[in-house]
Amino acid sequence: MDVTFPRSGLIDGEKVTDFFRSHVQEINIEELPLPYCAVATDLTTGRELALNEGDLIEAIRASISVPGIFTPVKKNGSFLIDGGLVNPVPVSVVRNMGADYVIAVDLNHDIVDKRSADSIAPVDSSLASVVDQPPPPKWRIAQDLTNRLNEFSSPALSQVRQWLHRDPVPNIFDVLTTSINIMEVQITATKLATDPPDLLIQPKLGDIRFLEFHRAEEAIAEGYREATTQLKERWKGAVKSDLSKDS
Asked: Which of 63, 110, 115, 136 could be joined to 119 by an S-S link, Cβ 3.0–4.6 Å?
């Protein structure tokens, strides 16, 4: 990652883009075997943009440009940032793409009211075969990013790390990301009320902080648990509905 003078973002996106290109095949979105869309926000107009054609990596890079953290992406004269600012759980976008059944994952469910580390449920032994499986190469991006960041030996970054750990106060990353998360929670609630998905999965990930890629195992296990719970609830509801019809 390029830590930059904060003109438009603390982290320049060039190295992030180069890193993705070294792991992900360069391809246009319209050439993918499955329909795909990345959501971004036009910084000038505030409009939601559904990026469903053109360079895949560029679209991903725009959609993850958290304001103040990553520099915006310039595309067709516009500056694009994280789509979560306008549509954190883009159910409407997927429906417009022609989806018959929408499964949405809300990652902001308890992001503001964070849990303590002790309240995180341990990884269930029954999930060991799911969580402990070595991921295929294309899924190792997060771990590689963490390793690269830890290996980065810039004197300036060392000073930043010392400064961030000196006092027990929220660091600049926490202030920026938590502020955005508070806003996204409110927007998410409104969006889901007006355009609910067919199945909503809300894993409890509030204790996992920004860039904590090393906690992926916890996130995967929590996501698996919540998805399983929702599927069981949906199945029970379907059974009760069928029984009531028969009676």
From this structure: 115
d(CA 39, CA 61): 10
Paired residues of 78 in beta bridges: 75
Nearest CA to 95 out of 220, 196, 167 is that of: 196
Beta bridge partners of 104: 200
Residues in the chain: 247
pLDDT tens across 62-86, in order?
Answer: 998 988 888 899 888 899 999 999 9
Closest among 58, 57, 62, 114 to 86, alpha carbons compared: 62
Dihedral of alpha carbons 203, 209, 213, 215, sign: negative
Beta bridge partner(s), residue 2: 12
**What letter would DSSP give residue 201?**
E
Report d(CA 104, CA 181) in Å as an integer: 17
Please answer whether residues 241 and 234 qualify as being in contact, where contact means their C-beta atoms are separated by less than 8 angstroms: no
Q: Which residue has the tokens 């920026």?
A: 176
State the Cα angle at 177 between 176 and 182, rounded to 5°: 105
Q: Residue type at 14?
A: E
Angle at 13 between CA 105 and CA 61, to 5 degrees: 35
Phi-psi bin for 206: left (phi > 0), alpha (psi -120 to 50), beta? alpha
Q: Confirm if 50 and 109 have CB atoms less than 8 A apart.
A: no
Q: What is the pTM of this model?
A: 0.70
CA pair distance 175, 189, nearest whole angstrom = 22
pLDDT by residue (tens digit) across 90-126?
999 999 999 999 999 998 887 766 544 444 455 555 5
CB atoms within 10 A of CB 212: 14
